[in-house]
From TrEMBL:
The keyword Cell membrane does not apply. Catalyzes the reversible adenylation of nicotinate mononucleotide (NaMN) to nicotinic acid adenine dinucleotide (NaAD). Coiled coil: none annotated. This is Probable nicotinate-nucleotide adenylyltransferase. It catalyses: nicotinate beta-D-ribonucleotide + ATP + H(+) = deamido-NAD(+) + diphosphate.
Length: 198
């Protein structure tokens, strides 16, 4: 787990990143800037319980490719979930919270994940653990209005102009951040439809 100090604001950007691409790097960059974070942890997961793992590249390979996408020293690429044998996001966030008292974390995800967020194990627990920043993705802009998560936690939504306040807000709290969008997707890259950009 990367080193942090009390009082810091840290974004948590997790995924299988199979493979990582410039779209992921864009989400990380937007998050750092709009949320005014001290750090962003790019968390490479051993595997996603909701996805087919037959075409999942080895963790070490995905970790290396993620590091090649990073050009900001505030971004820390990590795969600590494997060391702790953690499989679900709710467990990952509970572990992070227990080991880092006094640090302000915010969970970061692309809007393409928002529509299915209610399928994640203990999704409401995730929303009650840390604030959430949803970053716009092509074709997913309206998810923040129609998703089950958005409807359930409508009362806890921050205006995106207040995004810098999100990390220090008590959960549940979330915002949807509009901005530049990349049409790249890991699935399309794996299928050979597009080439990964560096």
């Amino acid at each position: 787990m990367p080193f942090v100090e009390k009082g810091m604001t840290v974004g948590l950007f997790g995924g299988s990143f199979n493979p990582p691409h410039a779209g992921h790097a864009l989400v990380a960059e937007i998050s750092l800037r709009r949320l005014q974070l001290d750090q962003l942890w790019w968390i490479v997961t051993p595997g996603n319980p909701l996805k087919d793992t037959r075409h999942l590249a080895p963790l070490a390979e995905r970790l290396k490719l993620c590091e090649q996408q990073v050009h900001d020293p505030r971004i820390k690429v990590t795969a600590f979930e494997a060391a702790y044998n953690v499989r679900y996001t709710a467990d990952t966030l509970a572990l992070i919270k227990a080991r880092n008292p006094g640090v302000h974390f915010v969970w970061i995800m692309g809007a393409d994940n928002l529509a299915d967020f209610h399928r994640w194990q203990r999704w409401q627990k995730i929303a009650m653990t840390f604030p959430i920043a949803v970053i716009d993705r092509p074709g997913s802009t309206l998810a923040f209005l129609s998703s089950r998560m958005a409807k359930t936690f409508d009362y806890a939504r921050f205006d995106e102009d207040d995004a810098p306040l999100l990390a220090r807000a008590p959960a549940p709290a979330w915002t949807f951040i509009h901005g530049p969008r990349s049409s790249l997707s890991s699935t399309a890259i794996r299928n050979g439809a597009v080439k990964r950009q560096k």
